[in-house]
Amino acid sequence: MHSIDTQLFRKTFGALSTGVTVITTLDAQAERFGVTANSFTSVSLDPPLVLWSQSSTSRSHAAFRDSDRFVIHILADDQSPISDRFARSGGDKFVGLDIEDGIEGLPIIRGCAAYLECRKIAAYPGGDHVIFLGHVEHLVRHDREPLVYKNGQYLPTAGAPALSQAAA
Ligand SMILES: Cc1cc2nc3c(=O)[nH]c(=O)nc-3n(C[C@H](O)[C@H](O)[C@H](O)COP(=O)(O)O)c2cc1C
């Protein structure tokens, strides 16, 4: 078997444009956690299932591993600062954000293009990541354009002069 260069692996996936999500949860002490993730995808329509994968070395991994819920936020095109904030490791990433309480008090970030409130129904090992499968219990789609990520950068929004570089 050929070994795959990690940089080339990352660069190759840069050819795939994706949306950008922030995924939030609460731990048993009701502390809020969130990460930026573009590994999110839909899996099944009936029942409505989605998945995303998280690095098992993320500081928030224990919170997501132990929680039975998460909320996926599909970011709007003016929310690259929120993507950058949640892509930095550790700390309280929610300070100063406009937040509302979702099912079982999970934090919902206002202003996104859509959000999906999910019950975690499975977690599968996936190399250095863990794949979380969620059953969508409630979702909201707002009339906002999504943030798009490609080649390690956010694509410019309508009228924006330049690309902004993502934090990670
Ligand atoms: C656009 C983008 C997409 C990302 N997608 C993922 C992902 O799908 N899974 C993941 O584990 N980390 C992903 N990351 C990296 C995490 O957001 C980053 O490691 C973060 O610091 C984790 O936070 P934590 O250490 O506080 O848990 C992504 C970062 C960016 C900028």
**Helix-strand string:** HEEEEEHEHEEEEEEE
The description of the largest β-sheet is: 7 strands, antiparallel
CATH class: Mainly Beta
Strand content: 35-45%
Uncertain stretches: none
Helix and strand composition category: mainly beta
Q: Which compounds are bound in this model?
A: flavin mononucleotide
Helix content: 10-25%
How are the elements arranged and paired?
Layout: H1 6-13, E1 18-19, E2 21-26, E3 32-37, E4 41-44, E5 49-55, H2 61-66, E6 69-74, H3 80-87, E7 99-101, E8 107-109, E9 114-126, E10 129-141, E11 148-150, E12 153-154, E13 164-165
Antiparallel strand pairs: 1-11, 2-3, 2-6, 4-5, 5-10, 6-9, 7-8, 9-10, 11-12, 12-13
The structure holds flavin mononucleotide.
Flavin mononucleotide (FMN) is lined by residues 20, 35-39, 52-55, 58-60, 83, 86-90, 149, 166-168.
Please outline what is shown here.
This is Flavin reductase. The protein has 168 residues and is mainly β.
Model description:
The protein is mainly β. The protein has a single domain, classed as Electron Transport, Fmn-binding Protein, Chain A (Pnp Oxidase, Chain A, Roll), CATH 2.30.110. It is built from 3 helices and 13 strands. The chain has helices at 6-13, 61-66, 80-87, and strands at 18-19, 21-26, 32-37, 41-44, 49-55, 69-74, 99-101, 107-109, 114-126, 129-141, 148-150, 153-154, 164-165. The strands form 3 sheets. It has a 7-stranded antiparallel beta sheet with strand order 3-2-6-9-10-5-4. The chain binds flavin mononucleotide (FMN).
